[in-house]
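User: Could you go from structure to sequence for me? I need the amino acid at each position, not a summary. Structure tokens:
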């Protein structure tokens, strides 16, 4: 069971208490705020009808364990059975949100992996402008800690070694304290009481029960496993992301092959029938880019890979592997044409072959050198026509799909299309937000990393949905608390967590079975208030 939330007391909790209290009055639609934006994709029309709500969670909020309630925009998943419409026209439900490895801007810490639960209320604002950012209210209800049966805990500390395979699990990354090292990035709420969570350190995918106990671990093909040379020159597994703990100094650089540092499994989704798990690497493997310098890496890391696992086996079985070519954007530090890769941060299944992908640039936004982002977008992806390379020589690190970053000509990549521009100031400004100068708390922070979709329930527009997009604030606050210690981030900033809500038309979206053993009965229009 998810533990009960203790009372929140003291000055540093007041802002959070105000956020969670009360209900915002419904603001009725009186006309379109701006023209809809549509794109044609694979014979269907997808429409962005605009931003309709915002939530802001204070940077100094804490969870039930006394740790800063930050970083939880790394992943989100809606309990679809809980989603409902209230008598006053608002909507409600239960939203699970996933923090990553804890505060780490000045070094990694012993932060235990966990999953947060929020009860939410959405009162969409379809027209007009407001300075209020409370159309989506999020009341924190509690957290579940991840662990292994027998009591072994997890940690956000950089992996320092390997816990060798046993009868149940593969080699696991462990820290110096022997806890399992996790940098959690995405979560799938299955509907059977369990959760799948993807990780950057492995890169692995972990399966937990509702108590947070570890059930299964997916270890990807050897091409994905980070390898470095030991003191004897031999290639060995080394899961370090070159992220030393606070007070420790080392520089291991990137691996020789496998996932890049901090470019692991950012995207995770499940097919509507709950039979297939899809996993998307943030950007290209080391062997699939030009790793001769940090500059060439940024220029050539766009050929990433998507994996598909059939879950109808004792151990998940790899049945699909596809190349996804990530979008490019112009490097803003030069006037010369220089195209960088917009790495992906989340994946959401529309059906068994089409997805939403959240892609973004880096080092742009509030607290960054550049106040304005060039690329933050929810895009469309289709793998139906892509080459399936699962089980081929490409699963070995010695056979890249894109030597020096150039895709092998015999491999057809997935189809990719830009869709929803998060940086659209015409939409952001309606809620007092912006992309670009001035660099303040209303300038979107760099990292946008989570998505969820729920039905609008409008019989006149049966393919309309609310799309939630969440930010990861990196636990940046001047009033922080983690593993029993107070901290103030060196940036000097307080970065609140934001969740944006859009209304979109998704003509190919298939509602997932909320229980894998039952048929979905349809959207519940019952009145809850």
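Assistant: Here is the amino acid at each position, in order:
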């Amino acid at each position: 069971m998810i533990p009960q939330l203790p009372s929140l007391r003291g000055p540093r909790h007041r802002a959070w208490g105000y956020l969670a209290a009360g209900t915002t009055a419904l603001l009725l639609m009186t006309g379109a705020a701006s023209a809809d934006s549509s794109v044609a994709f694979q014979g269907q029309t997808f429409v962005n009808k605009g931003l309709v709500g915002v939530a802001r969670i204070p940077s100094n909020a804490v969870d039930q364990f006394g740790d800063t309630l930050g970083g939880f925009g790394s992943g989100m998943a809606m309990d679809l059975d809980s989603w409902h419409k209230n008598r006053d026209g608002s909507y409600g439900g239960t939203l699970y949100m996933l923090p990553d490895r804890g505060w780490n801007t000045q070094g990694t810490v012993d932060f235990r992996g966990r999953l947060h639960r929020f009860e939410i209320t959405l009162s969409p604002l379809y027209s007009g402008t407001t300075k209020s950012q409370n159309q989506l209210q999020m009341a924190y209800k509690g957290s579940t800690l991840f662990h292994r049966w027998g009591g072994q805990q997890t940690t956000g500390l950089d992996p320092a070694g390997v816990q060798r395979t046993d009868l149940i699990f593969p080699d696991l990354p462990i820290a110096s304290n022997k806890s399992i090292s996790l940098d959690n990035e995405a979560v799938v709420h299955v509907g059977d009481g369990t959760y799948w969570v993807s990780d950057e350190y492995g890169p692995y995918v972990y399966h937990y029960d509702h108590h947070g106990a570890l059930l299964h671990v997916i270890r990807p093909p050897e091409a994905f496993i980070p390898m470095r040379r030991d003191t004897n020159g031999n290639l060995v597994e080394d899961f370090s992301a070159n992220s030393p703990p606070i007070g420790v100094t080392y520089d291991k650089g990137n691996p020789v092959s496998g996932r890049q540092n901090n470019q692991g499994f950012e995207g995770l989704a499940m097919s509507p029938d709950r039979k297939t798990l899809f996993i998307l690497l943030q950007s290209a493997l080391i062997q699939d880019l030009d790793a001769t310098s940090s500059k060439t890496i940024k220029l050539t890391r766009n050929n990433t890979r998507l994996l598909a696992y059939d879950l109808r086996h004792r151990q998940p079985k790899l049945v699909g592997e596809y190349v996804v070519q990530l979008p490019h954007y112009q490097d803003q530090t030069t006037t010369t044409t220089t195209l960088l890769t917009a790495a992906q941060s989340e994946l959401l299944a529309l059906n068994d072959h089409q997805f939403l992908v959240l892609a973004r640039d880096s080092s742009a936004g509030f607290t960054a050198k550049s106040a304005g982002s060039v690329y933050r977008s929810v895009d469309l992806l289709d793998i139906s026509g892509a080459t399936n390379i699962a089980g081929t020589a490409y699963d070995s690190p010695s056979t890249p799909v894109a030597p020096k970053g150039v895709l092998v000509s015999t491999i057809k990549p997935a189809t990719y299309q830009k869709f929803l521009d998060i940086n659209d100031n015409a939409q952001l400004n309606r809620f007092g937000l912006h992309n670009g100068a001035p660099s303040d708390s209303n300038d979107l922070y760099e990292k946008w990393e989570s998505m969820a979709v729920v039905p609008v329930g409008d019989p006149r527009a049966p393919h309309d949905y609310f799309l939630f997009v969440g930010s990861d604030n990196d636990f940046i606050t001047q009033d922080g608390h983690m593993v029993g210690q107070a901290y103030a981030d060196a940036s000097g900033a307080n970065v609140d967590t934001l969740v944006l809500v859009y209304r979109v038309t998704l003509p190919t979206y298939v509602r997932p079975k909320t229980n894998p053993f039952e048929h979905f009965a349809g959207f519940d229009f019952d009145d809850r208030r």
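One structural detail worth keeping in mind: The mean pLDDT is 91.
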